[in-house]
Design a protein that fits this description.
The complex is a heterodimer of chains A (116) and B (112).
Chain A: E1 5-7, E2 10-13, E3 19-24, E4 31-37, E5 44-50, E6 53-56, E7 65-68, E8 75-79, E9 88-95, E10 106-107, E11 111-115
Parallel strand pairs in A: 2-11
Antiparallel strand pairs in A: 1-3, 3-8, 4-5, 4-9, 5-6, 7-8, 9-10, 9-11
Chain B: E1 3-6, E2 11-14, E3 19-21, E4 23-26, E5 33-38, E6 44-50, E7 56-59, E8 62-65, E9 75-77, E10 86-94, E11 99-102, E12 106-111
Parallel strand pairs in B: 2-12
Antiparallel strand pairs in B: 1-4, 3-9, 5-6, 5-10, 7-8, 8-9, 10-11, 10-12
Chain lengths: 116, 112
């Protein structure tokens, strides 16, 4: 089966600019996650979708970050305006039935964002 | 809250050496446990998993056993290869939120 697709792979922007990331999950996976992975750290969940509804966005900095999942398939994550501390790899993952049932997640290759 | 603690890296080994990466967890109930691997420049890949106590997950020569009594899920491999050089993440599922909680990762470097 095709994996989780993410684009772009790399992005360099200046602080205060805006940026958007795109994710296409595995077909049929109802649950979609965006994680932020800062260099040297484990991934941190930003937002979790179930179909096109938000399940958990408690860790999303809503003053600058936004995400949507229209039609319950593709998703976009936006940062506006970006700060230096947003430099990280942004990982998208999808799951058939949720982590707790042992399915785990399938991750995309990620988008490496550098804010200068 | 739920959390995962991994041994700090880097772990540096010669090829064919025995590998152990320690992982312990704190959780309410009985979470599923996972090991993910991240090769340089790539995303996270599921390496193995265990969904209940005493289960052993295995893949590509790696093994980990779900130990409820010690709340541990240590990763082992009998003979590492240079190609195993990567960052390894231990994770658990949170039953309340159905999301994965990751440890900080352990970098493994294998030299010929």
């Amino acid at each position: 089966e095709a994996g989780v697709a993410q684009s772009p792979r790399y992005k360099i922007i200046e602080k205060r600019q805006s940026v958007a990331f795109w994710c296409n999950p595995i077909s049929g996976h109802a649950t979609l996650y965006w994680y932020q992975q800062i260099l040297g750290q484990g991934p941190k969940l930003l937002i979790q979708f179930q179909n096109n509804g938000v399940v958990d966005d408690s860790q999303l900095p809503k003053d600058r970050f936004s995400a949507e999942r229209l039609k319950g398939v593709d998703s976009t994550l936006k940062i506006q305006p970006a700060k230096l501390e947003d430099s990280a790899v942004y990982l998208c993952a999808s799951s058939l039935a949720g982590a707790d049932r042992g399915y785990g997640y399938t991750f995309g290759s990620g988008t490496r964002l550098t804010v200068v | 809250g739920n959390s995962v603690t991994q041994m700090e890296g880097p772990v540096t080994l010669s090829e064919e050496a025995f590998l152990t990466i320690n992982c312990t967890y704190t959780a309410t109930g009985y979470p599923s446990l996972f090991w993910y691997v991240q090769y340089p420049g790539e995303g996270l890949q599921l390496l193995l998993k265990a969904t209940k106590a005493d289960d052993k997950g295995s893949n590509k020569g790696f093994e980990a056993t779900y130990r409820k009594e010690t709340t541990s899920f240590h990763l082992e491999k009998g003979s590492v290869q240079v190609s195993d050089s990567a960052v390894y993440f231990c994770a658990l599922s949170d039953r309340d939120t159905d999301k994965l909680i990751f440890g900080t990762g352990t970098r493994l470097q294998v030299f010929p």
